[in-house]
Design brief:
The structure holds two protein chains of two kinds.
Chain A: E1 5-10, H1 22-29, E2 35-41, H2 47-60, E3 64-69, H3 72-85, E4 93-97, H4 99-103, H5 110-130, E5 137-140, E6 144-148, H6 152-164, E7 167-171, H7 194-207, E8 211-214, E9 217-225, E10 228-235, H8 246-255, E11 260-261, E12 270-271, E13 274-275, E14 287-288, H9 298-302, E15 313-319, E16 321-324, E17 328-330, E18 346-348, H10 349-358, E19 364-365, E20 368-369, E21 372-379, H11 395-409, E22 414-419, H12 429-437, E23 441-444, E24 452-456, E25 459-465, E26 473-478, E27 480-485, E28 487-489, H13 494-499, E29 526-528, H14 538-556, E30 560-563, E31 568-570, H15 580-584, E32 590-595, E33 598-603, E34 623-625, H16 630-640
Parallel strand pairs in A: 1-2, 1-3, 3-4, 6-7, 6-16, 7-8, 16-29, 18-27, 21-22, 21-27, 22-23
Antiparallel strand pairs in A: 5-30, 9-10, 10-15, 11-12, 13-14, 17-28, 19-20, 24-25, 25-26, 31-34, 32-33
Helix pairs in contact in A: 1-5, 2-3, 5-16, 6-7, 6-14, 11-12
Chain B: E1 2-3, H1 8-13, H2 28-32, H3 44-52, H4 55-59, H5 63-66, H6 72-76, H7 83-98, H8 103-109, H9 111-131, H10 136-172, H11 180-185, H12 187-196, H13 207-228, H14 238-264, H15 275-299, H16 307-327, H17 332-349
Amino acid sequence: MKKKIGVYICHCGGNIADYVDVERVREAIKDEEGVALAKTTMFACADSNQKEMVEDIKSQGLNGVVVASCSPKLHLLTFRAVTERAGLNKYNYVHANIREQVSWAHSDNKAGATEKAIRIVRSAIAKANCAGSLEPIEVKSTKAVAVIGAGVAGMRAAIELAEAGAEVFLIEREFFVGGRVAQWDNLCVSDETGKDLVTRLYDRVMSHKHVTLFTGAEVVENSGSVGNFNLKVKVTPRYIRLQCKKGELQKAIDVCPVEVPDEFNFNITTRKAIYHNYPSEYPQLPAIDMKNCTRCGECEKVCSNIDFSQKTEYLNLKVGSILLATGFDPYEPKKGEFGYGEIDNVVTLPQFKRIVHYSGDKLTYKGKTIKHIAYIYCVGSRQVDGENKYCSRYCCTSNIYTAIGVKKKFRDVYNYHFNRGIRTYGKQEVLYDESSRLGDIYLQSFEHEPPLVEQKDGKTVVSINDILTTDKKLEVEADLVVLVTGMVPRQDNSIGNLLKIPKGRDKFFNEIHMKLRPVETVIDGITIAGASQGPKNIKESINSALAAATKSFSLVDAGKLALEPTIVKVDEALCEWCGKCDEACPYSAFDKKEVDGKIVARVNETICKGCGMCLPVCPVNALNLVGSTDKEIENMIDALLPTV
Amino acid sequence: MARINPEFTNKLKSYGAFDVNACYNCGNCTAVCALSDENNSFPRKMIRYSVLGLEEEIEVSLEPWLCYYCGECSATCPRQAEPGELMMSLRRWLTAKYDWTGLSGLLYRSLSASLSAFILLAVAVIAFAYRQDFDPGRLLHYGHYFEMIAIAGVFAVILLPNLIRMWYMTIIKTKTKVPAGNYFKALGELFVHMFTQKRALGCDDNQVRWFEHFILVIGYLTLLFTTVFLDWFASGSSFVIAAGYIESAVIFTITFIFVLSRFNKKEEVSKHAHPSDWFFVIWLFLMGLTAFFVRLFIDLDLLDGNIWLYIVHLIILVQWALIIVPFGKWTHFLYRSFAMYFQKVKESAK
């Protein structure tokens, strides 16, 4: 069909017209092949012009449109919508950028700018000449979501998804739910405990018929794509039968001879090989940790429901979307970092919280009464020389809250905060106020001069060059040094690799756009929530969990999905399957199939993003990108070259 | 290296300081202070030292004396940490530090100790009067003797050693090398500040306060001279008698205004009165008043029949001379002017 293209050249007020002679551009292109109409306009994006374009398309029967104006990032979608309103398929629209790429870049050379604008518009017309109508690709979508991680974010998302009507598989790697929040006692500012929150969420999760919880479960394989993910889940048994009697179980725990450091208490206590982390933990059934169990058989003698015959199971789950809420690890200081691991009374904030929890009337650590506590902030966060440049957001607040609690609970405790600027942002600022009025002392170090922790005559001394006390080196003799450690990504983040979720420089999972698409990943159908994405406090985690739940739900709710048609197509006659496209593809969109006895590449339409990375590596040129075909690109290049 | 001592602020509170820990070091107090300058930046630095408990640093500092308490800092403090009152408390604490007897500290910290001392001296005076059979002539005679002995004694035993201690702390301990000649060159500064309190004029607040204070100091010093050296109560010179009347009237009038303003609490400076502040103005007021009436009764020949009036005056006088002058707020008269003097000496040494 012969093309009838309408070309609109925008003045953008003076933004373009001050440097580009738009009238000359119009003159130069008005007789190009296919051009049926060429106009200049003061503001192409203005309502009046949009209406005029719709009129032109309808009255003149245009089947191609070019607007030469600003960056397509700004108005590509605007003008695509204009063509749609006029009843024309939006892929017939081509955008030419003569502002960012011409007038702003060449304001010193008006003649040259005009010449460049002419060529850019010509190349856009060349593309419009071969552009055609395209229809979205439609795929079916399973109305089920896998939520990975049953911490507060995962559980909250699961509840939300189930209530909206999706089937939810809640997959937890540990034997117990609650993640990091279960390890927290009192939380600011409500004084509720982390365990309370976990209990409340767990009750709701379990009471919902659409949620299925798997503990001791890990995703080991993933295939498929948005709308149709196939997950293989490995479920490790607890080796204890469900009907177990409570009294017998406690006996089984008591007789177990194995003692290992209790990671739940950050290794300040020990636990048995058969264990639960705390009495009111969920699920209420203990588990046997086979990594440490010696199979001595003592527990079997006192408890009839120990069952070592239980086997690891593998389940196949089909879901339309995956929501990742795998959480964080607390930063583990390096040996010798502020004396950690070398000086006896240097602990981390999570450990300190457990020490406070286990102290009775007196605050004690390793048998010694604690009176003077030095807190060193930003350990593992905001590192000047290290890798972790980010702020962990929760630590200032959490630490000051803990310090206030200590000051109120135990008499004669003195808190010294060696900080790098306190960030009790938002409503949490009241904590800083309260703490300083209680007499806590704040000392601020210079960026390149962190506080020094050393042993002097058997005493632990922390010294600092304080920003607020000019020319004075100050020191405190501390009974306990608390390293206020931040958040780091999970040490075992294999799930991220399995699902190919990109990570940021900070190694946390990355969203598509920090502000505008904060819970989606570049892998369609996979959303992220909670601290797996970066440091967050509980409130922020829940916020992101609810957002991710909504986004995931929107992908599975309708039962079908409409995808962009601008993806790669394989010319099966030319393809000889060498696998180079598969290597080049950042999204693993390729696999192979057999056609008439020949192996050829196949593109998974739901995975391909149309990035074009595969195109140049194909040795037989069997790949073409819909919407940017070789023919279109070649014509554009020809149009850009000077006319002889 | 300085060791932090968080218990110091508790100690300071017994000297009248408020919630110093509330300070978050914004520095508004220093910015707004009319007397603070590059070389002597206060009160923020002093607040920081106090919060950290750097006693040695505060002990050798003259800065608390350089503040004349207009109260602008307290009015602008966003945390109600009362920096002005902190500087005042540091002056009390320094007074206690300079005092070798340790009594200043005891009297500042403990109201009951102060009251006991006042009662003890009152009883002693009454007992003495009883032993003299309440004889007006003898009492007036001994009263005059007491004045002279007390001035010389208090100065030699308490004030002079304390000034030497102040000099030692602020100049010797800070390792300032001062050529002996500088002490003479700077002497003018000592007397100018002692008699005029000129520096207080630099404060941005109402200059009336400075004027009232100035008149009070002149009134006090001249009355001291008139009673001790011109023997006002026994004098026959009508000039001396008239001068004494005027001077004592000036004292009780101005102190009355001061007492009133401490009641009204309208100005920053009078919002937070420590017991020592009350004792100082009230005793000065009573001294002026009783002296005025004692002389009036003498002139009207009423004193012989009303010897109680002289005994009251004597009690006030003894309490003043043995408590307030050596250990109480009176000392600021000396320490302030000597602080200005030492400051000048130090600056000239640079």
